[in-house]
Design goal:
This protein is mainly α. It is built from 1 helix and no strands. The chain is rod-shaped and about 75 Å long. 0% of the residues are buried.
């Protein structure tokens, strides 16, 4: 008779959580960098569009 333990799936689940956390942090950093790079060049068009509404 073979008895399996559930120690391995819990460790993998914990490692998966760390990987997803790092992935989300990387995505947030990329989004912030993209906004910082593109934000200056798009400020003028958005300002003129918003002034057109008022």
């Amino acid at each position: 008779m073979i008895i399996e333990t559930n120690d391995q799936p819990q460790q993998e689940r914990g490692a998966g959580l760390v990987e997803y956390t790092l992935l989300v942090a990387l995505i947030v950093l990329v989004c912030i960098a993209a906004i910082a790079l593109v934000g200056d060049s798009t400020a003028e068009p958005f300002s003129s569009i918003m002034s057109g509404f008022s």
